[in-house]
Every structure is written in C-alpha cells, then in structure tokens.
Amino acid sequence: MNxxxxxxxxxxxxxxxxxxxLTVVLAQAKGRxxxxxxxxxxxxxxxxxxxxxxxxxxxxxxxxxFSVEFVAQNGSRxxxxxxxxxxxWSALEGSILLWGLVLAGYLVAVIWKFRTRLEDPLVxxxxxxxxxxxxxxxxxMVGPADPFGTVANPxxxxxxxxxxxxxxxxMAFHPPMLYLGYVGxxxxxxxxxxxxxxxxxxEGWLVETRRWTLFAWGFxxxxxxxxxxxxxxxxxxxxxxxxxxxENASLLPWLTGTAYxxxxxxxxRRGMLRVWNLSLLCATFALTILGTxxxxxxxxxxxxxxxxxxxxxxxxxxxGVVVLVTLGLIGWRGEQLRAPGRIDSPLSREGSFLANNLxxxxxxxxxxxxxxxxxxxxxxxxxxxxxxxPYFNRMAGPIGLMLLFLMAVAPALPWRxxxxxxxxxxxxxxxxxxxxxxxxxxxxxxxxxxxxVAFGMAAFxxxxxxxxxxxxxxxxxxxxxxxxxxxxxxxxxxVVLVAVGLAGSGSFAEQAEARLAPGDSRVVHGHEVTYVGYxxxxxxxxxxxxxxxxxxxxxxxxxxxRFPNATQEIGKPAVRYGIxxxxxxxxxxxxxxxxxxxLLRIIVQPLVGWxxxxxxxxxxxxxxxxxPGRRRRGTEPVSAPTRWSGRRRPAPDDAVPExxxxxxxxxxREPVVTG
Length: 675
Hints:
single chain; alpha+beta; 6-stranded antiparallel beta sheet; 4-stranded antiparallel beta sheet; 18 helices
C-alpha cells in the first residue's frame, strides 16, 4: 500500500508538472493568457503529489514496511523515531523525494505570492521554468531514483541508516535546511529566465525576487553551519570543515549567492552589472545541480556522499542544459543588457561591491577547481589524484582577509564617489579598534602573523559594522536594526565572529593522545583531564562503551558505539564548550583487559563556539534584512520615492526609471538606512 500510494504521488506530481509546462507554453504560443489561470491548479496537484509521496515514505519507514526497497535497505526496527524520520534523506532516493517536496513547497509559495499576476508574462515564464525543474526531479523518481521500488521477499529487518547519520539530532535539521537553501535558489533563477525570455531585463524582476534570494541564502547558511557543527560533534577528528568535495559543493552556491546579494544593489541603484547579476543567479542555481551531481553520483570520495548511482550522467546533463539555456538567453538579449551607466570611481560603494564580487568569484573558482580537478586528472591521464586541505587553506586565506578588509571599507563608502576626507572620518575609529585589538592580543601573548592579521581585520570590519548599526539606531530607534543595509551589518557581525573562530581554532589548537588508567590525569593547555571510570550499556539501538572523564571538575562521556548490522564501532566525542576555548574528547580505545587503560584523544581549541554563535548572528541578520527599512517598502526599488515623500509610487516591474545620472540624497549621507 505504501509503495502504491507513493508511486501514485510521484506520478501525480510529474503529470501535473508536465501539465503546467504545456499550459504555460500553450498560453504563450496561442496568445491566450486566460489559460494561465489554470496554473494554480497544477501547482496544487504537484504539491498534493509530493505530500502524498512523502507521507507514504514516512509511513513505510515508521511502520517498518520492508516490502518497500528503500526501507529494506535503509530502515531498521532498532532505529529510534527521530532517526527513522530522517532516514528519508539519509539515502539517495529519499533525498531526491525531499528535494521534490521542498520544490513543491516553493511552487505553492510563489503562486500564492503572485496570485494576482498570473497573466503577467514574466510570472508565466518563471512558472514554466519552475515546472521544468519540478518535472526533472519527479522524472528522476519515476526512473533511476525511484524511492518506491518493492522487494519480492521482504526481510524481517533492515540495516538502518549509516551509523554516522543516526547519532546526532542535527541530522534531523541540517539536510532539510540545506535543501531549503539549495532548492530556494530555483525561484530567483526562474525569474531570471523569465526576465530574459520576456526581455524585461530592467530592475523590476530583481525587486520581485530579492527576498526569495535572501531566504534561500539564509537557509543555505544555516545548513552549512549545522553541517559543520554535526561534523565537529560526530566524526571524532576534532575538525568542522575538511574541504570535503560535498562540503565544497554546498559552499559554491553560497559564495556566488553572497556575491549576488551585494551586486544586485548596484543594479538596483545604478542600473549596472545586469549581465553579471543574471550570470551569478544562473550560476548559483547551476552550482546547486552540480553539487547534487557530486553528492549523488559517487564520482568523488566523501564521507557525506551517497552510494554510486546511475543518476550522475542525468544530473550532469541537466546541469549542461541549464548552462546552455542561460548562455543562449543572455547572448540573445545581449544588446538590452548593456548597462547605461559606469562606475565613476573605485572609491565608491559600487566600486567596493565590484571588488567584493571579483573576490567571491575568485574564491568560488578556487574551490570549484580544487573540487573537480581529481575528475579532470582522471579523465585526461587516467590516474587518481586528490587535492588536499593545504591547497584550499593557502588559496582561501588571503581571499578571506581581503574580504574582511572590504567588509570594513564598503559600508563607509557613499554611492558614486567618496572623498578621502569622508572616508578617513568614517573609518577612523573602526581602524583604531582593529589596531587596539591587535595590541591587546599581543599583550595577552598571542603570536603569529596570520592570526594577528585576521583578528585585526575582523575587528576593523566588526567596528565598521557596529558603527553603522549605532548610527542607524540613533537616527531611527529600533528600526535601525531592520532593513537590508542594517540587517546586513548584523550579518557582517556574524561573519566577523565566524572569522575570529576560524582563525583562533585553526591557529592555536593543541592536541594530545593519552593512555590513562582510572585516576590518572593529564593537563592539556591548562585543562586537567582525569579518567574516572568506564561503563557499558546495551540499548536496543546500540551497544555503548563509555568512559567517564572529568574535565576541570565537569564530567564528560566520550563513547564507542556499535550499531546493529554495523561492522565496526563508531566514536561519539564529548565536547565541553567555553567562551574562550573548547575541550574535545574522543575515546580511541576502550579499556585494555591487561591493565584497564583507555586511549583518549584530547583536543583544546580556542574560539570554536564563536563559529556557531556567528552562524546564529548571521541568521538573525538575514531575518532583519527581510524587513522593510524605514523609508521604503521592501518591494520597491531603491530608486522609488519614499513612503512619506508625497510623490507617486512607480509602476511595478520595468517601469522603474533608471537613475544613472540622478543624485540620490543618500549619496551625501551616511549610508545606514536604505530599505
């Protein structure tokens, strides 16, 4: 029954997606916009099919219906309920189903948002693009990624999900957040395609999709941070980011998406960078497909990768189609995309955003090249090579420092041109704050050029962001925290915390492996670690062997765990977080029968907790950025009149006038309250 219901749901969603495509095409080809009023019905059917299929899969997992092949291969009677639910996205077919569910949700949200503009050609083409993506993913589920295949002789029990994926509650949240980000970029991509198809390549479509892009970026940020946190607390090596190919696949669209969120302001304000912005959006979506290919094709070795499957070439083909369609449309509209303005001075807000975009693009290229180079080398020379962490660190470090510098300088720059006097006045105390932090660090005994430069740059950027927030709140009260610019400054503060955490934990970690008998102690980086005792417990879902260890008077329990049907034990580290540093314990070897000693890995890392705190602040800033600022509605372009200026609001979409020559009053003021 579960398999039949699920198959019916997938089929319904696929047929509805194709129906939506045909309806939009027919309406456009025959000039019958009234047909577009049927689009919500197709969206509803897609959503119904996705929900039905997901419900059937969850029911099959929870009721242990091992006649469903996916459940037989990934489910288990011993798995607890939270991890039984998350089993759906722990393997290939279920993860594609989750992708389809999230995409259907975005379809519903978009059609609800634009329900009064169904006959608008821009919206119609955007829906066509979204239906095409939906049809592709549900088509995968009908074919090579069918989650509802059945087995003739169902087993009595299954192996359960990968033990690493049923050992931490973050697994219940990290993939869905990541998917909300990945899939969310479909919406701005679809509107970019719509703008190119209709020729309405002005700033109107940007305004329509600004928040969709922001929320997708925010979800992807949450997903990446939670993934790093999960890695730190589960994998037992004491790190949170290993430049793993699958990690890199999530970072790539985040980098291009971040670049877009900055450069789009230049287009809205000055009408420039049109081709660049369209390319960034389409590249961001294409990179989500490439990331899906890297994760699910099995072409790269990764602890996060799914097993090898036959959908790799199909995903790669879809990636190629996306790239070709995008390039073709941009080439077709080339003349209309020519920017009417130019950057007047490198010392301007738009100049700094352009530099910021070049750095993000360079960063993305470095990561992409390092990720796919093993594939290129194998294809050309038939040999397996790997690109290690030193390559990424060596390339990413300088780019990160330059981005911190721009984070400090850009908010102080006005549009069009800045005088040296203005710049020095606005950057004076952030610069002194940066210098003061470096002096304080040296006085406290911190050594090392790279971490000191990183701390100084982070303080410089943090001081600049803090200055903007203070100025905004002094002028506008609590509204000084909301709006794109002010919320963006909160995001910058979160990035500063992350940067400090990366620099501190990466530069000053101290590690030791100690063999301890009960009562023995070891001091690592000022922390006294004492082995107290040992215990074993046999739970339905696992056999646990736990060491009781006291760290500075607090008891921690690093474990070794054996799951049913697993061939080896999985470590479960214990972590004690602090504002300054973090003590990380991993049990490497349980007590020996000969002398009762354990082998314990002890890692003390400063500022790791700042990474998670910085991620939380970035999310807060993203939410604040979504609220309209004081003077303009969030759905209006920057060039629109303010709410209480008494002037007429501009017509939506491309009727927005260009402001290439106009001088905005804000250009002469502190840029703190744009909407």
